[in-house]
Amino acid sequence: MNEQLTNEQRRSFILKAGSLLGVSVCAGSMAAFLNSCEKDENKIVTATGTVTVNVASETGLQTVGDGVKKTYDGYNANKPVIIVKTGVDTFMVFSAVCNHQQCIVSAPKATGSNIVCSFADNKCGHEAEFSPVTGVQTVGPNGGAASGGLTVIPSSYNASTKVLTITF
């Protein structure tokens, strides 16, 4: 049982062992790399409930097409919302978190202008634009194709009391 390996057999064994070792090292590195891409598991708990806004006292909501950005502690993962006056007695509320890189978008800068994810405002933006009426993306990131939109947050408006109720 004392067999001698030929040089060719030894060389073949070393090549196969080296290949197996290389595959093992690469697989371990690839697993670590892919795990580093996982989202943060420490999710922010967001409260559910309602917030009321006295529209009569909000100067940025007096003209159709105007909008404001507001943050309500505990709601929307502590991220702001955009409130836009879309008609005489109608409003839309959107999460201000852009669907591309989770940057915070700006409220419309002028009456009737789009909601913009602007680099000038948050050093993260890519100039995507969203409709202030629907939240649908009208201009994609960096001028590319539009896709997706802002998350609509349910709301209702009581014209007699001039109170907007936002439901999170």
State the fourth-level CATH superfamily of the largest domain. Answer: Rieske [2Fe-2S] iron-sulphur domain
The helix content is: 10-25%
Instruction: Please report the distance between the alpha carbons of the first and last residues.
Output: 78 Å
CATH architecture of the largest domain: 3-layer Sandwich
Structural class per helix/strand content?
alpha+beta
CATH domain class of the largest domain: Mainly Beta
Report the biggest beta sheet as strand number plus sense, adding barrel if it closes: 3 strands, antiparallel
CATH topology of the largest domain, anyone? Answer: Rieske Iron-sulfur Protein
How many domains? The number is 2
Q: Give the strand line-up of the largest sheet.
A: 1-9-8
Helical region count?
Answer: 2
Q: What's the mean pLDDT score?
A: 85
Q: How many β-strand stretches?
A: 9
Question: How does the overall form come out from the CA principal axes?
Answer: elongated
Could you tell me the strand content as a percent range? 15-25%
- List low-confidence stretches: 36-43
Could you state the order of secondary-structure elements as H and E? HEEEEEHEEEE
The oligomeric state of the chains shown is single chain
- What gyration radius follows from the Cα positions, in whole Å? 27 Å
